[in-house]
Write a structure and sequence with these properties.
- This protein is α/β, with parallel strands linked by helices.
- The protein has two domains: 156 residues, Rossmann fold (3-Layer(aba) Sandwich); 185 residues, Dehydroquinate synthase-like, alpha domain (Up-down Bundle).
- 49% of the residues lie in helices and 17% in strands.
- The chain contains 15 helices and ten strands.
- A six-stranded parallel β-sheet has the order 1-8-5-4-2-3, with helices on both faces.
- β6 and β7 form a beta hairpin.
- It is globular, with a radius of gyration of 20 Å.
- Bound molecules: nicotinamide-adenine-dinucleotide (NAD) and zinc ion.
- The site of nicotinamide-adenine-dinucleotide has 31 residues, from α2, α5, α6, β7 and α7.
């Protein structure tokens, strides 16, 4: 089903994009942006692609809008503005826009073509690649969705110039993950970077995409190998959900949440898979350099563990983790004794 992943890099493909779309002969074209990419990317995208006859759809920015209400509003707008089965949707934005836009496209009239033009580092190295589309269900992340490859992903680091620094850091967490699950040299190279600016990070987009793409091609439907990409995400998603639904607490970006998840899950690796304590400390130190420390008290922990029980990766009530046996040696489907969770929080806090 998913033997083809079409990803291009650089501005040239953007310049050629309208010709490629012409060849596909769509009846009409729609472009989804959020309020930030509308402000920072839309004009430049239209100028560079020359796509002037395109219907622009705008959604509110932010994870809290990655939900069914936003989809419903977009389905209505598509319908009212004459979209048919032969229309196509281009998603210009971060992971929220590519996840939600992909889902809207896959479900509208049982599926229209879509294209991803990721504008955050996180969407470039992760969200826009691999065909996972979807939305959140209440506080629970990505519960509703479809796996379907976009027709093309156009990655161009030019968009990073307006991205806030903490969003760059957020995407960087997924890149560190790519090193941890598959390439120790890459991990060491990334954690030695003196600074995280757009120019420096741009050089590592393609290697990270290659790691993700290879995993996805081997196991598109996440029967086994693809699960390795969830390293840090079992706890990370629960932490992300918790902070998302507690606006009075600190706001956590996806990468910031999975950074905590990776530190805690490294510790679980020590306890359950023989992962070296030294490497777990190295991982903790590395993440502490890039991500603000988050105070997680015992009440927070209790509620986070409650959310953990709803993770999609659970099977018959068992919470399964991807843990590390060594750097670049992940082990999937590891069941973790519940009494270790408190110790993992303690490790993160120590
Ligand atoms: N499908 C997948 O495989 C996959 C993988 C990882 C993450 N995700 C999902 O991706 C989402 C996180 O993605 P994200 O971090 O890109 O979030 P996001 O889409 O919310 O973007 C982060 C912020 O940056 C703004 N923004 C985007 N591009 C900009 C630009 N060029 N200049 C200035 N501001 C810009 C956005 O409006 C938003 O405020 C989560 O919902 C997560 O679940 C999906
Ligand atoms: Zn992620």
């Amino acid at each position: 089903m998913q033997n083809k992943i079409n990803i291009t890099f650089g501005t040239e493909s953007l310049l050629r994009f309208s010709q490629e779309l012409q060849a596909r002969n769509y009846s009409s074209l729609f472009l989804l942006v959020d309020t930030h990419t509308q402000e920072f990317c839309l004009k430049s995208f239209l100028t560079q692609t020359g796509l002037h006859h395109i219907e622009v759809l705008v959604m509110a920015a932010g994870e809290e809008h990655k939900n069914l209400q936003t989809c419903e509003s977009l389905w209505h707008q598509l319908s009212e503005r004459g979209a048919d089965r032969n229309s196509a949707l281009i998603n210009l934005g971060g992971g929220v826009v590519t996840d939600l836009g992909g889902f809207v496209a896959c479900t509208f009239k049982r599926g229209i073509d879509f294209f991803n033009v990721p504008t955050t580092l996180l969407a470039m190295v992760d969200a826009s690649v691999g065909g996972k589309t979807g939305i959140d269900l209440g506080p629970l992340k990505n519960q509703i969705g479809i796996i379907e490859e976009p027709k093309q992903v156009l990655i161009d680091s030019q968009w990073l110039s307006t991205l806030p620094q903490e969003e760059l850091h957020s995407g960087f967490a997924e890149m560190l993950k790519h090193g941890l699950i598959s390439d120790e040299n890459y991990w060491n190279q990334l954690r030695a970077l003196p600074q995280l600016d757009a120019a420096t990070l741009s050089k590592f987009i393609e290697p990270s995409v290659t790691i993700k793409k290879e995993v996805v091609l081997e196991d598109p439907r996440e029967r086994s190998l693809r699960k390795v990409l969830n390293f840090g995400h079992t706890l990370g998603h629960a932490i992300e959900s918790y902070y998302l639904t507690h606006p009075q607490k600190k706001r956590l970006l996806h990468g910031e949440a999975i950074a905590i998840g990776m530190v805690m899950e490294s510790f679980l690796g020590v306890k359950c898979c023989g992962f070296s304590k030294h490497h777990a400390e190295e991982i903790k130190e590395t993440f502490a350099r890039y991500y603000p420390y988050v105070e997680i008290d015992t009440q927070d922990q209790k509620e986070i563990l409650e959310l953990l029980r709803h993770d999609k990766k659970n099977k018959s009530g068992r919470i399964n983790f991807v843990l590390l046996e060594a750097i670049s040696k992940p082990k999937i489907d590891v069941e973790v004794p519940q009494e270790l969770f408190a110790k993992a929080f303690e490790f993160y806090g120590s």
